[in-house]
């Protein structure tokens, strides 16, 4: 029997019931729904809207229902449509008329809004924790590879030598901004919609501040129409997920490249790789590829919710029932991707000699050679041209810059002297970087020290 049956003279068709129902996916909000209802019942009792005894009975029974759901003893029905009406139906079946009083001064519109906010508050904390684990893994690896030299790329062409620690710390910065973004998003999610009614507030003497306190919300949303119609916080959450997935995906792309025979910079552990059903020699970086692929799904979730909300007139519209699928999917996908990525990172083998060898070839010391001439008083633009010609000469000869004889150096510029050889060695190139935030060994140590110092700063 429908809870809203009064105005209707006909039963809904079973196909309409099926189409209308959200219980298939919103049942995972049962804890939040019961938590919200318990707070609401307590508030109704405290305010004398229902009696204290009625409130107590409702609270007690909701606690029992929660336990029964956790023990797998409860079956939800499509007929009761969504998690809210399923739980209310069970409550009323257990305690009769008193159960029917729970929905006084409340609408499913403020109920679902509070459920999603409660759910997302928890999810955000979990994501922050998993992101912190990833940051710790990056920090650990970076500490191990302060001296590991590798090529730095632009346009995927060898550009200037860097260290692996430096490269890892670039990702550290990206993921720590992700954590900051989630923490900002938490601030806007942490606002209470409950007590707004359907859209216009209620006629009862409710206490929304009490509800906020009971449910652990820092603020009460000031406008009831906004409170039931707004899904910005959910869009923002998926947007944070999308950006974090994008960072993961970039990193995965590098791990995929680095584990190819062409790069051979790392080897992903067997426990995070898969084989081919036909080619016996294959070892594939499937986890990294899947994260890259799932990033597309999470972008889809963001686009989906943005589009669901676009064009919705005030206030609640049933379209909003569709918000949960992308929210759940984005949260689940990000959490799983972050966890597997961290494990993969901590178990992969770094082939430091291959990285270092790659850093020695590719004329990545050309900028440093130009800087050498600048130090002898030549304008940078002229130095750039001289070294460009030298690189071309070396390419044709098939040698590296530091394999030129002193005579050859001098033929390009009389300013060259013996110290050029030391100046353009890979390690010298790295060491010579002086600007704040550079790849020099000292700068990377300073970056690590800064990270250490900021530990304990709560996000
Ligand atoms: N199942 C609905 C949702 O997820 C709950 C709110 C329904 N409200 C309504 N007026 N039909 O959005």
UniProtKB/TrEMBL annotation:
Major subcellular site: cytoplasm
Boundaries of every Argininosuccinate lyase C-terminal domain copy: 363-431
Superkingdom field: Bacteria
Enzyme Commission code: 4.3.2.1
Biological pathway: Amino-acid biosynthesis; L-arginine biosynthesis; L-arginine from L-ornithine and carbamoyl phosphate: step 3/3
Keyword Nucleotide-binding: no
Coiled-coil positions: none
Gene Ontology BP term (one): L-arginine biosynthetic process via ornithine
GO molecular function list: argininosuccinate lyase activity
Catalytic activity: 2-(N(omega)-L-arginino)succinate = fumarate + L-arginine
Name of the protein described by the UniProt record: Argininosuccinate lyase
Gene, per the UniProt record: argH
